[in-house]
Amino acid sequence: MTIRDAKAADLPYILDIYNHAITHTTAVYQETLHTLEMREAWFAEKQASGFPVWVAVEGEQVVGFCTYGPFRNWPGYRFTVEHSVYLAPSHQGKGIGRLLVEHIINHAREQGNHVLIAGIDADTIPSIRLHQSLGFTEVAHFKQVGYKFGRWLDLKFLQLILQES
């Protein structure tokens, strides 16, 4: 398994992974499937903003992707970033998520970011445990802020301080 910069040719695979998360999980509080055009616009915006998108590749198959970007768009938050990691269902629980989060941590730290934020559905215990094992601490638990699959969802924020003061 390798991690490399995403390219436009990867977008159909990224789209499939993301749409699976929309349809079957609470990893993203989105209910409308994305189109390839939407993913192309997202990718172009990431590139224009200078934020990375990486893919995890096994053989020639894209099995996951990750990215990070601004936590909030106000200047005072410019050293705080929030990340996303998505895996193909067939490749979850195999350590690929850990490798992708570690990749994000290292890159975000090298770029001079101070804090890395993870917004995780409160019932997604494996992801919460993964982040905690990498040094993230829970800093917020928002009750019933999301709604999907006919029920209210809680959201947890975890953070990792990348650069100690």
- Percent of residues in helices comes to 25-40%
> CATH-wise, what's the superfamily?
Gcn5-related N-acetyltransferase (GNAT)
Uncertain ranges: none
As for the number of domains, it is: 1
The total of helices stands at 4
Query: For the record, what CATH class applies?
Result: Alpha Beta
Shape: globular
CATH architecture: 3-Layer(aba) Sandwich
Report the strand count.
7
Task: Quote the distance from N terminus to C terminus.
Answer: 35 Å
Estimated structural class: alpha+beta
The fraction of residues assigned to DSSP E strands is: 35-45%
Biggest pleated-sheet summary:
7 strands, mixed
Q: What Rg is obtained from the alpha carbons, in whole angstroms?
A: 15 Å
Query: What is the average per-residue confidence, as pLDDT, rounded to a whole number?
Result: 97
CATH topology: Aminopeptidase
Largest sheet, spatial ordering of strands: 1-2-3-4-5-7-6
Protein name: N-acetyltransferase
Pfam family, one: Acetyltransf_1
GO molecular function: acyltransferase activity, transferring groups other than amino-acyl groups
Catalytic activity: L-methionine sulfone + acetyl-CoA = N-acetyl-L-methionine sulfone + CoA + H(+); L-methionine sulfoximine + acetyl-CoA = N-acetyl-L-methionine sulfoximine + CoA + H(+)
Can you put this structure into words, describing what you see?
With 165 residues, this protein is α+β, with helices and mostly antiparallel strands. It has a single domain (2-161), classed as 3-Layer(aba) Sandwich (Aminopeptidase). It is built from four helices and seven strands, in the order βααβββαβαββ. The protein has helices at 11-24, 36-49, 96-110, 125-133; strands at 2-5, 53-58, 61-70, 80-87, 115-121, 137-148, 151-161. The chain has a seven-stranded mixed sheet. α3 (96-110) links the parallel β4 (80-87) and β5 (115-121). α1 (11-24) packs across α2. The longest helix is centred in the middle third of the chain and has 15 residues, at 96-110. The protein starts with a strand and ends with a strand. The mean pLDDT is 97. GO terms for molecular function: acyltransferase activity, transferring groups other than amino-acyl groups. It catalyses: L-methionine sulfone + acetyl-CoA = N-acetyl-L-methionine sulfone + CoA + H(+); L-methionine sulfoximine + acetyl-CoA = N-acetyl-L-methionine sulfoximine + CoA + H(+).
